[in-house]
Amino acid sequence: MDLEQALPRFDLHSAMELTQTKSAALWRVQDRHGRDLVLKLYHGPDPGNEASGLRFMQAVAQIAPNLVPVIYRTEENAVAMEYVVGQPLGDALRRGDYMQEHSLLDTARQLHAHTLQPISGLPHLADWFQRLFNLRFASDCPSDLKADMQRAQELASALLATQRNVRPLHGDLHHDNLIGAGSCYKLIDAKGVLGEPEYELANALRNPKGCETWLRDKDQQKQRQRACCAALSLDPKRFAQWVAAKCACSIALRSGGVLKADPEADLLNMFLALADEV
């Protein structure tokens, strides 16, 4: 379904393009009641691997509608949802207002205060980490990076084998997936995955993009990890290990399956060192 087909089928009009991603085009539209909505049109015939995220968002909306945009309708490769007024939380941190990270922690705390009903079709974290376990190393891959990635593979394997309190997770909970202003933010772009709570904020420690110096400040990262653990009552050791494992998994994904080098090699090394220190 393209835009010309989706507008009449969903009874929408006044489309203005918001952005294009690898998987979809997003349009700001209005419905017949004059409400502003977002129309997301996936490039493929269906939402693909984002389908589990949509199911997660719909499940959250049933028990905590203040935390997610309302999804009004889904059909084939199209989704119509509430338009959330505001900016990504990451923008505040990119301006240097690092204290605003509390909004991420507050939102995560609210999300995990609720017990979601079982959601069908969610992948397991083990499925996601196959990309890390299947990684190969190019002959010119730096030895330090190769050693760190192999260490992260061992960490991820041990974590996956010993998960506790497995539950549905957002799966990509970081600053640029929170939209809003002041103290009111809503979660977007959930991935939807089954895993333990210690994983939920692991990707936040690599974010937001555009704060590279701050992200590589070891003392700041120590404080951030403590704050995440306090917010969600997490096991500090397991959380620090998940942070390193997630960083390695992202490196593996970017590599295309064969690792030569990566701009986050130094970040992974720091996360591994922090995990050792807990």
UniProtKB/TrEMBL annotation:
Q: What is the lineage of its organism?
A: Bacteria, Pseudomonadati, Pseudomonadota, Alphaproteobacteria, Rhodobacterales
Q: Does the keyword Transferase apply?
A: yes
SUPFAM superfamilies to which the protein is assigned, alphabetical: Protein kinase-like (PK-like)
Keyword Cytoplasm assigned = no
Report the GO molecular function annotations: thiamine kinase activity
- Which top-rank group of organisms is this from? Bacteria
Keywords carried by this UniProt record: Kinase, Transferase
Its Enzyme Commission number(s) read 2.7.1.89
**Name this polypeptide is given:** Thiamine kinase
Could you tell me the Gene Ontology terms of the biological process aspect for this record?
secondary metabolic process
Residues annotated as coiled-coil are none
User: One Pfam family this chain carries?
Assistant: APH_6_hur
Which InterPro entries does the UniProt entry name for this protein? Answer: Kinase-like_dom_sf, NH2Glyco/OHUrea_AB-resist_kin
